[in-house]
Amino acid sequence: MSAEISALGNRPVIIGGGAAGLMTALQLAPEPVVLLSKAPLGAEASSLWAQGGLAAAMDGDDDPALHLADTLAAGAGLCDEVVARKIIHAAPAAVEHLARLGVAFDRRPDGGWRLGLEAAHGRNRIVHATGDGTGREIMRALIAAVRRCPSVTLLEGVEARSLIVEDNSIRGMLAVNAQGPFVIDTARVVLATGGIGGLFLDSTNPSGCYGQGLALAARAGALLSDLEFIQFHPTAFDGPSRPMPLVTEAVRGDGAILIDDTGQRFMADQPGAELAARDIVARAVWRRRAEGHRVFLDARKRPGQDFAKRYPVISAFCRMAGIDPATDPIPVRPAVHYHMGGISVDIEGRSTVSGLWACGEVSRTGLHGANRLASNSLMEAIVCAQWVAESVQGASRGALKARAINALAPASDPSAVRPILSQGLGVLRDRHGIERAIRSLYPIASGRSAAADPALIGLMIAVAAYRREESRGGHYRTDFPAALPSAMPSSLSLADALGAISDVVESGSLSVGGIQP
Q1: Domain total for the chain?
Q2: What is the pLDDT of residue 468?
Q3: Which of 191, 253, 263, 461 is most enclosed, with most CB atoms within 10 A?
Q4: Where are the alpha helices (DSSP H) in 7-109?
Q5: Domain residues for 413?
Q6: Which of the residues 85, 278, 288, 418 is marked catalytic?
Q7: pTM over the 0.85 mark
């Protein structure tokens, strides 16, 4: 172990360079903290790609109680109302905090907030920056603040491979960089590396986001919750690029409509039409495509000629494909966008493993329930970072000792997992498709190949989906199309997932139990 790494011992370690990790590091100041980022800071963070914005009751005709009601309705009975209320009431102050950090939010000529409308929101409450570049602008400001902060030691090009756990407590972290593996001795780790889109063929997430934080937590013994709930964004750009460019929901909030290749507006008779909850719109688009039609977002009338000014990022990639949104319909299709499930945490971000916290998309706080309300995710990451930091600061450091480096698993590669999950855990699911996914994933997850960790998370998602014999939010079973009378979160540990199906391959029968409270 080098003297430089040794000097970092006993500091909190934050794994992940997106908005959640950056904000947690800033909130921990002036306590010295180590921030790990596998790629150059922000390069593979989903936060950077966020076109939407932050949902917050910032206007005079809005109120956190109205925002909460919309959140609970979208969450389809699985939100933790106490947690959701606390986060939503803190949202306006979080926006103001970001503005003080230098985020250039869009303003009206009178200086007030320019607020957008997105699906399932009853008010215009989406705070944007540079139109459809909110994530990029927030990341710019946070990265600049972190690089200026003397208490943050930034380790770029460093990948966390495993957590060292003794008696259900964090005792260190094994990582690797270009020079090889090393251990940081620490009793406090914050996982802020979210996103699972890289586990699927079609996703709007960076391809490097494939559940690494979930795998670290699962192998450390942490409990995961609601893994079956995956949000498919209904309007990813239907072209050859992977990851898929996103056509933000704000375009529909500005009046754009969904049509098929015959020109029919197929959402017109649905409650909420194009601004229904994302799971409803995604299923409608999916079914239309299954009937042999292509689907388009028609923005020719609204926002029409203002499209390029309002949405410069979308306009740019459309023009690269030979499409002018002011005169041409935009081809779209559903793609994996956000994971409502994650590491089970309390309101302070504490997991079931002592010394392990989670913040951002990798966590399951209870805010999103079965279906995330649009633009609640960036807001959750910024708000919860403060509470996570306060909890980390108040935690016991513990006595640590130097540790030898154990055998290093190969770097993960999710390519073998993508077709399996895409086929079995898509917008519409059924028992046989999920069973096939479990049978395919189990031997990979039980091995030591580069696909083991991605397969493990895919397997846990599949087991959770198999157990939930109902349709709710982002989880839709064609063989169980109705929702159960009462909603119950799911929970799953690594031991539970592997133990539940350990005899499946040999016995030929699949029985993994019902929903676990």
Answers
A1: 3
A2: 96
A3: 191
A4: 19-28, 64-74, 81-100
A5: 407-507
A6: 278
A7: yes
